[in-house]
Known about the structure:
This protein has one domain: Anthranilate synthase. Strands 1, 2, 9, 10, 11, 12, 13, 15 and 16 form a nine-stranded antiparallel beta sheet that branches. Strands 5, 6, 7, 8, 14, 17 and 18 form a seven-stranded antiparallel beta sheet that branches. The protein is of the alpha+beta class. It is about 35% helix and about 30% strand.
Amino acid sequence: GREPEKMELAKDADIAGLLWAYMQQFEITGSALPVAKFAQGLYGYTSFDAVNFFEKLDNSIELPEIPLMRYRLYQYVIVINHFKNELFICENIMTGLETEREIILSLIRSKDVPEYPFACKENETAFSTEEEFLENVRKGIAACHRGDVYQLVLSRRFQQKFTGDELNVYRQLRSVNPSPYLFYFDYGDYKLMGSSPETHLKIENGEAILHPIAGTYKRTGDDKADQEAAINLLQDQKENAEHVMLVDLARNDLSRLCSDVTVSAYRQIQYFSHVIHIVSEVKGKFEKGNNPVDLLVKTFPAGTLSGAPKHKALQLIQAIEKTSRSFYGGAIGFFGCDGSCNHAIMIRTFLSQQNTLTYQAGAGIVADSQPEVELQEVNHKLGALKKAIQLAGAMHTEKMEEVKQVQ
């Protein structure tokens, strides 16, 4: 491929405008196949810390461990329709680049795919102790009582060193925690992989959609008990107050660039592998020709990962959490040159870098929160991630046992 273009950015640069202007350089021609649209755009992510480009916050955070934003136009995009068992190879014709379709086809047809084991190395590391997190929650509750915020999302960060191939962890995560968004982005020196249940922003056919998820109970594994828990969740005043605030914030965020904003689904129960969530859907009309990157910026980061009012919540997060969030709570997905957008929130997500997995989860703090309950919520959300690591390591152990028996 080509060498990446570089551009110096001023502190107050219009990132959304620059990125959209870059995308408008490409000549988009129609295709007989609708799947071609999946190749006509940029794939990448916006980290949580990129909010410093969009909001006037204290910038005294450490240097980012990964680029704050990274988007790429790919020469080839392989689209798979699992329902029809169809595979499409979409190629963007680029001046100066030769076609490599035959190489792509040979890779797809090849059955010689090496597999490498995965094993944990040393114990898991927490960036804050349980008591430190409980103290952070108390600070968040105090901020709510002072009227600084109505809600504040605080999180805990963990790391696990490993040897081998982290793709095994992603395979297990897909199985343990099937979600609307499953992604594995390999950037060479780091990877982002996850199974996110939550849309950050979707724009399609002139309609913008947000899916705020707030309100969480743990799943038991027993269907009857889970149904009872779902009923209790919908009656839980604290969890519902949190949800209502964030639905209202989603409406306000969309209203900044959309018209006819409505709540199209309200307080619905959804079951995931380890938790039960309350989910709503907020829609608005987004005029054709408008900048989708600008709408992502206006809704960033999601209220469900920051709090309300959002600006003050972001200031408090920087003051209380001490370490930057990096990828956690950011958005990952696709911007189409036709103005479409589909981004997930980076929750239930791993950053793999230098043989270390980093993962994080948070809880929404309101005035009547109980610190111990919020700690439990974080642990419940981490459940799928930790289970995936455990199972990936167990696969390696089982294979080693099989080898011993054969010998």
